Amino acid sequence: MAAPGRSDLRPDGCPEQVAGxxxxxxxxxxxxxAGSDASTQAPRFPADRSTDGRTREKRMFTNRPxxxxxxxxxxxxxxxxxxxxxxxxxxxAAAAPIxxxxxxxxxxxxxxxxxxxxxxxxxxxxxxxxxxxxxxxxRESPVIKMVARDASGAGSSWVFPDGAKAFTLSGGxxxxxxxxxxxxxxxxxxxxxxxxxxxxxxxxxxxxxSVVRKIYNYSxxxxxxxxxxxxxxxxxxxxxxxxxxxxxxxxxxxxxxxxFPNWSRMSSAQQxxxxxxxxxxxxxxxxxLKSRDAIKxxxxxxxxxDLIFYDGHVGFYAGGGQMYSALNxxxxxxxxxxxYTTPLGYYRVVGVTS
Length: 354
Prior knowledge:
The protein is built from six helices and 18 strands. By secondary structure, the protein is an alpha+beta fold. The chain crosses the membrane at residues 74-95.
């Protein structure tokens, strides 16, 4: 297929299929080796913090209702019962869920179930909502722990209101607790993925079960890598490191993200077909997400870094109704109105591993 001519408004499109190097070859030559520290080998970019400079909000608290006055004997009996039962730590009050998270998944094992929502706010920050429920009748106490990790595996733990790095739920079957916060974890180069550990049992050595899930920040990291290439040129059929077409830019930048599994070089139409097939294979609660997956989103759910597909073109959603892509030979890599032509669909590339 011959490359179309130049145009200021219509992209040149992407090749039907172009053979390209594996992701490992791309990383070895231009990016990072798997498991290496992205701060030294992956393209560098500035710390991405919340635009309004928010500090961590303490949203987890306990509402205590006003109680009627008690007699002295009743108070003494209550105090004795408390001492006999041992110290009980009040659970956080229910926190409102995130209305449009980047991803929401269950993390569960028999007797303990957590639902995690995460909204990636950049390469270093996220808003996280967690809910932990005791789903068993075994009198064990569910425990949750969350750690933000960078490409090297270095981590920073979520700190709960009592200062602990793990939260233990008391109250028996049916009890639950939740919390929500914006999180800019210290001590890591980038927020590559969120690691959630859930177990049924306060003692880790005797716990009835345990499960770990990792939610990856693919879309924001790939988009940020793409922004670093804004001075590069458009060449039909190319996939980097200095010249790109639309699908080549998507292919190249996702392969730079630590933890992203290998994928082959595809045209924009093939990338859309892959995303649609991946979305169709998902369970309704997204409990079966894979290490490289996709979910379809509506126009109103678009978040920065999502992919917008057109007839013969693909680009990143840049926020504010804009689309960032390797457009054509006249415009190179640029940002334009996302409605410059009719979009065919919107997808978010996601990844979850055990």
